[in-house]
């Protein structure tokens, strides 16, 4: 079934995309944790320096100046790290949304696959049932036919793609689709109803019906 092939291919493609999306989420999660840790570490150092300044624990003017410069530098560093942290957070949110979207597509595709497979299985079961019924009808009909005719039919069927007999429809063989020539058709018309006739072109047994044109 074309639909089943399409859904199966889509499911395989989605599986690959889900793996990539999950990996991206995991990588960005680790990156965000690192960014959070970096910010906290620099903030902690800034707080220590600020307590020293506020508590008057710096003895020399040179050390005080150095500490003040460090505080300014740390504040600038915190701002940079927080920008990075925000950027990573936004990327992570987008990656998580993409992952959720893919997961929803997988679930929808799986539902489609389940429905399609159920339909296919039901169709195959119906075909099997029809084939079983056809074989039973064939066996029932075959019991009333001469053994020689059945043997000839089976031989033709195996040789000619499973079709050993064909209806003669409007002067044409239903097997090879070729029109019976005038002389042969005249012979068919004159033949006894119980005579076994064969198509001159393909060799199949010809079955005469009301639509044969006789």
Short description:
This protein is of the alpha+beta class and 214 residues long.
What features would you describe in this structure?
With about 210 residues, this protein is an alpha+beta fold. The protein folds into 2 domains: about 140 residues, Helix Hairpins (Orthogonal Bundle); about 70 residues, no CATH class. The chain contains 4 helices and 4 strands. It has a 4-stranded mixed beta sheet. The longest helix is centred in the middle third of the chain and has 82 residues. The two termini are about 40 Å apart. The mean pLDDT is about 90.
Layout of strands and helices, then pairs:
Blueprint: H1 2-54, H2 61-142, H3 147-159, E1 165-169, E2 172-173, H4 182-190, E3 197-198, E4 205-208
Parallel strand pairs: 1-4
Antiparallel strand pairs: 1-2, 3-4
What brief labels describe this structure?
single chain, 214 residues, alpha+beta, Helix Hairpins, 2 domains, four-stranded mixed β-sheet, 6% strand, rod-shaped
Q: How many extended strands? A: 4
Q: In the CATH classification, which architecture of the largest domain applies?
A: Orthogonal Bundle
Helix share bin: over 70%
Which structural class best describes the helix and strand composition?
A: alpha+beta
Could you tell me the mean pLDDT? 90
As for the number of domains, it is: 2
Q: What sequence of helices (H) and strands (E) makes up the elements?
A: HHHEEHEE
CATH domain topology of the largest domain: Helix Hairpins
Q: Report the uncertain regions.
A: none
Evaluate the radius of gyration.
42 Å
Question: Order of strands side by side in the largest beta sheet?
Answer: 2-1-4-3
Percent range for β-strand residues: 5-15%
Gross geometry: rod-shaped
Mind telling me the CATH class of the largest domain? Mainly Alpha
- Largest sheet features: 4 strands, mixed
Number of helices: 4
Distance between the termini: 42 Å
């Amino acid at each position: 079934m074309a639909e089943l092939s399409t859904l199966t291919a889509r499911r395989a493609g989605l599986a690959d995309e889900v793996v990539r999306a999950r990996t991206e989420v995991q990588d960005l999660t680790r990156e965000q944790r690192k960014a959070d840790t970096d910010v906290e570490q620099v903030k902690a150092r800034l707080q220590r320096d600020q307590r020293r300044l506020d508590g008057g624990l710096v003895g020399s003017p040179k050390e005080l100046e150095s500490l003040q410069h460090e505080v300014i530098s740390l504040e600038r560093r915190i701002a940079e790290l927080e920008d990075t942290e925000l950027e990573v957070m936004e990327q992570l949110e987008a990656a998580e949304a993409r992952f959720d979207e893919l997961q929803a597509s997988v679930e929808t595709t799986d539902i489609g696959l389940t429905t399609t497979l159920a339909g296919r299985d039901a169709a195959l079961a119906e075909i099997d049932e029809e084939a079983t019924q056809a074989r039973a009808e064939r066996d029932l009909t075959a019991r009333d036919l001469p053994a020689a005719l059945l043997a000839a039919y089976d031989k033709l069927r195996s040789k000619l793609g499973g079709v050993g007999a064909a209806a003669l429809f409007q002067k044409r063989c239903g097997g090879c689709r070729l029109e019976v020539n005038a002389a042969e058709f005249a012979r068919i018309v004159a033949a006894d109803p119980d005579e076994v006739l064969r198509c001159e072109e393909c060799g199949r047994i010809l079955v005469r019906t009301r639509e044969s044109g006789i």
